[in-house]
Fold Macro domain-containing protein.
Amino acid sequence: MLQKKELPKLNEGFARIVFCHNENDVEATIKAYTALGPLDTLSNGCFGQKNPDAKIQLGIMKFLKKVEAPSNVGSSSDSVQDSAYPQASDANNICCKGTAKESLLLGVASKEVKESENLAKGSVDDDVSVDEITTLAFPSISTADFQFNNETASDIIVEKVEEFVNKLENARLVLVDLTHGSKILSLVRTKAEKRNIDSKKFFTFVGNITQLYSQGGLRCNVIANAANWRLKPGGGGVNAAIFTAAGLALETATKERANSLLPGHAVVVPLPSDSPLYTREGVSHVIHVLGPNMNPQRPNSLNNDYNKGCSILREAYTSLFTGFLSILRSRSKLPRRISEKLALTPLDLKDPSLDPRNHLTNSDQKIKRDDGCVYERSKKCKGANDETVADISAPSSTYGKVTGDKSKLEGPTSKTWGSWAQALYHIAMHPEKHKDELLEVLDDVLVLNDLYPKACKHLLVLARHEGLDGLVDVHQEHLQLLMTMHAVGLKWAEKLLHEDSSMVFRLGYHLAPSMRQLHLHVISQDFNSNHLKNKKHWNSFNTAFFRDSVDVIEEIKNHGKATIKDEDSQLSMELRCHRCRSAHPNIPRLKSHISICQAPFPHALLENGHLVLAPKT
Ligand code: AMP
């Protein structure tokens, strides 16, 4: 692609394309990518393109000769998108840390080199779609260990993909194989091309299915496992790799769903958030699928009966794709994501607000818990469309064990919290299990460092009371608790000021928190943190979305409850410096401004104890 100087397009499978028009752009972009943590991400989309109709990138070869990729960067050599399908690797070869996640196009349009505005405009700010593409990565079922004929298997894969691809809406399917020159990949690719299957919806990818994101830059929320009938680790190939990569969490979660699997069937297993596959790769579900076995050395061999084999392989793919559709379906039923409201380190998969499992309505909970059921292509799911998925999740069917303690998922307010959004709640309820993370534990509150600090110093003071999810649950009887939280927060701010007297702290609550369990933010006003990445992060601490602890206490004293309104509008407000109130077009600009702004804080903040400063000497 670079050779031909063609411009990459988002619909080729890139998550993010950044057009650089001069070396400043390149530098700024590399900086933005280098600042990312291993699980961080930038918004998807196309940034900095001046002429969207242009077909070729001027001067790219000249640029490539001139610029060498930084030594600590580079794409994974063994994870490349297949050639006839979207090419993630070409551009990745010249990009930095971000290659693992995004595609960065470094180009110089020689005549257009004027300013770096466009790049800066789009680089981190989130004015383009931030939607993730839900992706199922699946290995070819039965063709390796079970020795199913590649040619026949590829026909079935393409047939099944074609059947399902139009039901996917925004999602996509990716056939993955570890080896370059994989026969099954090339057969499928050729056949899919012939059938004109939309390459945005389906493509092939060479890479390790357990490292697609960290090594290949391909984000796949769901991966399929070519499982054995016992649903146990072991054997070789994909099954062993997935169980090893996912850790014990997958074994346990699988056991909760099903103990065995029949050929042609699949079982969807939501991956616990402590699984490394979840935290490192962003995989939220594993779908175990069992295909037909043609290998006489393995159990239940079909003795070369391809009639039966083909029928079971079709069933297996149907079960797999039906399972995937059920995940999509439960996601599409989600209420508007809090991540859209607050976008706290989205696809920073550690962040609960990005995890759709944290945004299930009560009725979704059922789907969530049921999505671990066993899917089969049988009388129960003929046609295998969305409706049949609904049937599948009906309690009367023969599915895996449904688990989930609803009471734990629901708070006292109408909001329902998923597993990840409960981290603070669990810490508050069981501090003994989190000793290493805690700075202080008292009867009513405890203190810890924010895991994704948005400033140099960012602590959380957690209420330890059951039934207090957020400000909305706070009433007159909690006044004493709020005062304790404030006093403890203040004590820690003062302690930190003792270490660095140049700091300034602010104590407050988010109007609409992303995490369950009332928590007070104690945050230094430098906002010097790589975790602070977008407008919503900024505005959540620098608009009325952030309710100062002192004001909340006053309101509870006077009215018995805190005022909670306009939370949405606050987060989309323009970016303004919290000191001089100057406006800035994007986060990089704002950050570079605040790093030097010495203007006094606004009066409103300086009054009534809103800010905590070192005592004047
Ligand atoms: P809020 O939007 O007020 O709910 O903020 C929740 C805060 O919790 C965010 O600043 C997150 O960075 C932080 N956070 C998320 N998970 C954890 C965790 N496991 N431990 C500590 N802080 C966390």
Notes: Confidence is low (pLDDT under 50) at residues 61-131, 334-373, 375-412. Residues 342, 344, 423, 448, 450-452, 460, 510, 513-515 surround adenosine monophosphate (CB under 6 Å).
